[in-house]
Sequence to fold (80 residues):
Amino acid sequence: CGMTTSWAHAVRGNVVSALRANVGGTLLAAAAVLLGPWAIASGLRGKWLTRPPGDWLVVTAAVGLMLVILIDWAGRLLIG
Fold:
Protein backbone atom coordinates (compact mmCIF):
# COMPACT_ATOMS: atom_id res chain seq x y z
CA CYS A 1 0.00 0.00 0.00
CA GLY A 2 3.04 2.29 0.24
CA MET A 3 2.75 3.10 3.95
CA THR A 4 6.15 1.67 4.91
CA THR A 5 7.78 3.21 1.85
CA SER A 6 6.35 6.62 2.75
CA TRP A 7 7.82 6.34 6.27
CA ALA A 8 11.20 5.31 4.84
CA HIS A 9 11.25 8.37 2.59
CA ALA A 10 9.92 10.69 5.30
CA VAL A 11 12.60 9.78 7.87
CA ARG A 12 15.22 10.54 5.26
CA GLY A 13 13.68 13.95 4.60
CA ASN A 14 12.41 13.15 1.12
CA VAL A 15 8.89 14.49 1.57
CA VAL A 16 7.92 14.49 -2.12
CA SER A 17 8.73 10.78 -2.50
CA ALA A 18 6.96 10.07 0.79
CA LEU A 19 3.81 11.78 -0.43
CA ARG A 20 3.96 9.90 -3.73
CA ALA A 21 4.23 6.60 -1.88
CA ASN A 22 1.34 7.22 0.51
CA VAL A 23 -0.12 10.48 1.78
CA GLY A 24 -1.55 8.91 4.94
CA GLY A 25 1.79 7.36 5.84
CA THR A 26 3.50 10.71 5.41
CA LEU A 27 0.96 12.35 7.73
CA LEU A 28 1.49 9.60 10.31
CA ALA A 29 5.26 10.08 10.12
CA ALA A 30 4.84 13.83 10.61
CA ALA A 31 2.55 13.22 13.61
CA ALA A 32 5.11 10.85 15.12
CA VAL A 33 7.88 13.43 14.72
CA LEU A 34 5.77 16.20 16.22
CA LEU A 35 3.92 14.32 18.94
CA GLY A 36 6.44 11.61 19.84
CA PRO A 37 8.74 13.76 21.98
CA TRP A 38 5.74 15.31 23.76
CA ALA A 39 4.29 11.87 24.52
CA ILE A 40 7.64 10.53 25.77
CA ALA A 41 8.24 13.57 27.97
CA SER A 42 4.70 13.30 29.37
CA GLY A 43 5.24 9.61 30.11
CA LEU A 44 8.56 10.19 31.84
CA ARG A 45 7.02 12.96 33.92
CA GLY A 46 4.02 10.88 34.85
CA LYS A 47 1.58 13.61 33.83
CA TRP A 48 0.73 15.58 30.71
CA LEU A 49 3.05 18.44 29.79
CA THR A 50 -0.04 20.34 28.68
CA ARG A 51 -3.67 19.51 29.15
CA PRO A 52 -4.53 16.05 27.80
CA PRO A 53 -5.92 15.85 24.28
CA GLY A 54 -9.70 15.87 24.24
CA ASP A 55 -11.69 12.96 22.90
CA TRP A 56 -13.08 15.10 20.08
CA LEU A 57 -9.55 15.96 18.92
CA VAL A 58 -8.42 12.33 18.90
CA VAL A 59 -11.54 11.15 17.08
CA THR A 60 -11.39 14.01 14.54
CA ALA A 61 -7.72 13.35 13.81
CA ALA A 62 -8.31 9.59 13.44
CA VAL A 63 -11.31 10.03 11.14
CA GLY A 64 -9.48 12.65 9.09
CA LEU A 65 -6.45 10.41 8.68
CA MET A 66 -8.60 7.44 7.68
CA LEU A 67 -10.36 9.58 5.07
CA VAL A 68 -7.01 10.67 3.62
CA ILE A 69 -5.81 7.05 3.47
CA LEU A 70 -9.04 5.82 1.85
CA ILE A 71 -9.09 8.63 -0.71
CA ASP A 72 -5.42 7.95 -1.53
CA TRP A 73 -6.09 4.23 -2.01
CA ALA A 74 -9.25 4.86 -4.05
CA GLY A 75 -7.33 7.24 -6.30
CA ARG A 76 -4.62 4.63 -6.86
CA LEU A 77 -7.20 1.96 -7.70
CA LEU A 78 -9.12 4.20 -10.10
CA ILE A 79 -6.11 5.75 -11.80
CA GLY A 80 -4.09 2.56 -11.84
